[in-house]
Design brief:
It is a single chain. The protein is mainly beta. It is built from 1 helix and 18 strands. A hairpin with a 5-residue loop joins strand 4 and strand 5.
Length: about 230
């Protein structure tokens, strides 16, 4: 279990022995607002964490040290974060990198390479703070999950993404808008927006062509084909 708090420390726990943290990772300048575990390889467990100063750390948990640091030039607090596993982007032609999606309080939605720390895309479709983001977890689109092909508006993009091993991701903001994106190992491209909510988006999830959104004290299921 990985946790972060206002004391600026990231802690790794063994839930079988809850008295003491296995590791205490220090380096953040502000309170830790987001954290996520992921497998860097078959043997090395890694983590990504973000704080309210706009700083993102990538950690090697085997050694307990940060390996990459990413900082927004605007120093805007990170409001949403999600790690994209490399195996989801495996097209069989080259080794894909682990990626990181972040959204900040200024409305910028960014795609980072976790290994190098480089920012691959800065997407500015949102007009309010990005509050949440999610990625379709099934991996590269196959015939079973190529649901966008039923939509005339998105059929061309879907065929291109299928060839390039792209994924679908979504981000929600404070204006009540959810944006859909085509994600690859080299960048991110907007597909369209879901509008109709009258309150800030609290959380968003994707599942086989459906977009689940929590806002307006409701949970709304969108059909992207429509």
């Amino acid at each position: 279990l990985l946790t972060g708090s206002r004391d600026k420390i990231l802690r790794l726990w063994d839930i079988r022995n809850r008295k003491h943290a296995v590791q205490q990772l220090q380096g953040h300048r502000g309170m830790v607002t987001h954290c996520q575990l992921y497998k860097h390889s078959y043997t090395v467990l890694s983590a990504a964490s973000a704080d309210d100063t706009g700083m993102v750390h990538v950690w090697n948990l085997e050694k307990g040290v940060p390996v990459t640091k990413m900082e927004s030039r605007s120093s805007s607090p990170i409001a949403a974060m999600s790690v994209v596993s490399a195996e989801w982007l495996d097209d069989g032609e080259s080794d894909p990198p682990h990626l990181l999606l972040t959204g900040d309080h200024l409305g910028a939605f960014r795609l980072h390479n976790l290994a190098s720390g480089n920012c691959l895309s800065i997407l500015r479709k949102h007009t309010k703070p990005v509050r949440c983001c999610a990625t379709l977890p099934q991996g590269p689109w196959t015939d079973q999950h190529s649901w966008l092909c039923e939509s005339p508006l998105l059929a061309k993009q879907e065929r291109m993404f299928h060839r390039q091993g792209r994924l679908l991701c979504a981000s929600g903001d404070g204006s009540g808008t959810v944006w859909l994106w085509g994600l690859s190992k080299v960048g991110c491209q907007p597909l369209g927006a879901l509008m109709g909510h009258r309150a800030p988006i609290e959380t968003v999830q994707l599942q086989e062509g459906r977009v689940l959104v929590a806002a307006d004290k409701r949970i709304v299921v969108w059909d992207a084909n429509a």
